[in-house]
Amino acid sequence: MIQAVFLLLPISVIATFNVGTALYNTDEVMYKTWDEEDVLMLRSRMLMDQLIPKNIVDGKTFLDYVKLIMKTSEIITSDQTRRIAMVSVADAIGGYLQGMMLPHVNDAYYKGRESFEVTNELHVLSRKIKFILDTDGRGWTAPVDIGRPTVTSAGIGDNDNDRIYEEEENPCAALLHSGEPSADGQSATVLLPVFDDNSYPGSLAFPFTVGKRLFPVDRPWTGSDDRRPLLIRYYRLAAGCTSSAPLQFRSDMHRWLDEVVVPLLADRHRWYPVLAGASRVVRAAARAVGNGTVADGPIGKA
What we know:
Keywords: Signal
Largest sheet: 3 strands, antiparallel
């Protein structure tokens, strides 16, 4: 029966990344009394390592790949063999999701290069696999460390599509602030966004004057009149509002990003949809610190 599992292999590439397993632990392998089905499951799981992508692929490609594996499994006629194959596939794919795919797709999402729909579908797939296997992921490899974004390395990895341009059309009217612009040109103090808990947040508040201000962190909120991610929208407005005297805002924003936002972006165990495009803001703040401005000049791009 196990030969039927080979029908899955033509669509695979040889893996070099060990994703671990949630099906067995060391004691079970060493001391378990194995019946025929147990042996088939173990052999099947070893074969499924060959389904793990050798290289990092984009989220949509990986989802299509998983769907192709599932479709291919339908040609296995034996119920027992199909069940063994699918449990083995789930374990291999679940380990790859946890250890490699989700950290990379989260990073791409924060950079504004992956959609919420694809990122969310991958997270849903991971949760489904954990439910099916009745596991919390223990035994799979730990999430790979993508690296901590930094607000002190302006210019690294930048391109024109990453730049955030300040809003010029009456930006101060869209934000709550303390005080009013002074006669000598001193800008009003723009309020910063605030999490309800900086370490494990549930919501993020923005000082918008119109519409919703409090946003759960598990959704990719956008304004009804501005489809840009919330943090990018805020930064454009705040940069425009403080452009005549940017020193205080630049200092405050730098500190908030470095102390609060950057650690959340580096979290390997939780994804924050509300921070869509946040890495772009981190890079914009780094450029502002480096060249003495707040944003990237007049409005022209997102």
